Each structure stands twice: as structure tokens, then as C-alpha cells.
Amino acid sequence: MKQHLDKLRATLEQRFNASFSDWDRVNGFFHLLELADGDHWVRAGDLCEEFFYISEGLVRIYYIDQDGHEVNEGFYEEGKLLGPISSFVNGTPCLYYIQAIEPCTLVVANYPKFQEYAYDKPEVLRFVITFMQSLFLSNAKRDAKRLTSSGEQRYRWFCREYAYLQDRIPQYHIASFLGMTPVSLSRLRKSASKAEQ
Questions:
Q1: How far apart are CA 89 and CA 41, in angstroms?
Q2: pTM for the full predicted model
Q3: DSSP three-state, residue 109
Q4: Nearest to 16 by CA among 117, 109, 112, 137
Q5: pLDDT of 93-145, one tens digit each?
């Protein structure tokens, strides 16, 4: 447990510029959860009040479209914080699924309890605000790229932004994320490979 909490603290301090004068109290809000490849952390329709830090592994967020197809929204790896904001802020059911695509170790906390603790602690509240802002900004940037670009542009963007994850994500998941069929993705990969030769 300690090694995972140490990783969490390092991420909070480095990525979110957070400082915690009462770290022993803060880490008491968290517990470990292990997920096997394919396990769901949350499913659409569930009420969820938790957020988590990925200490080890890789997860995806996906929706089910009107035709019953899985549509990937994003991939999140070690060092990322994640949670269904609309669910734990508004008390509404989660709209999507979060699933492990590798074995995962998550450090999980209850958001309302954590926020209540942070309420009169500016250094902790600053982290909460920065966490929310970072999720919003990264989602907005990703969605804009996916909605305004051609298939080839989306693929090139993915290769730049997610190069370090390409070998860890099955091709059919990448195709779904990019809004194309696996066959179209295969063609783009072959074309890009030839252009590099």
C-alpha cells in the first residue's frame, strides 16, 4: 500500500503542485483496488462517488452507442487521476464504462468525503480545483481534435499524443477511439509506414 500512496503523493505534488501538511490524514481517505484485465471499475447506470489514481495498469472509458457498439472515449495509464465527475458532483448515474485493459492497481477515494475534508484547507482545495480543470481541459482538447479532423489527421494525432501507449492498446480499441473501422485503421497504418520508408 505504501508504495502506491507514495506514487500518488509524488503525482499530486509534481503534476498538480499540491502540498499536504497533513498527509497521514489524506492518505487515510484512500484504499487499494486490484482489477484484472477486462474488469469494470464502473458501468453506465451506476451511481459513483469515487475517483481513483492509476498506480499500475491501463484503463479505457467507453460508451455504448444507439446501435449497441462500444465507442472508446479515451485511454488512461499510470499516474492519471480519473473519476465520473458528473456522477459524483450531481449524484446522477454514470453515463459510461471504465474498464481495465491491463491488470490494474488503483488507489481509490470517496470524492464527497475528500471534498468535505478539503473545504477549509486551501492547499487541498487547490488540488481538487486543479484536478477538475485538468480533466475538463484534456477532454475538451481531445474531443475537438476527434470532431474536427479527418481520419488521417486523427490517426497522426493519435500517433503523436499516444505513441507511448500504442503497443499496449489493441488495434480494434484504437480504431473505435478514432471513429473508424479496424480495416480503415490498418490501411492508414500501412500508408504511414510506406511514407516513412
A1: 18
A2: 0.90
A3: strand
A4: 137
A5: 999 999 999 999 999 999 888 888 888 888 777 777 888 788 788 778 888 87
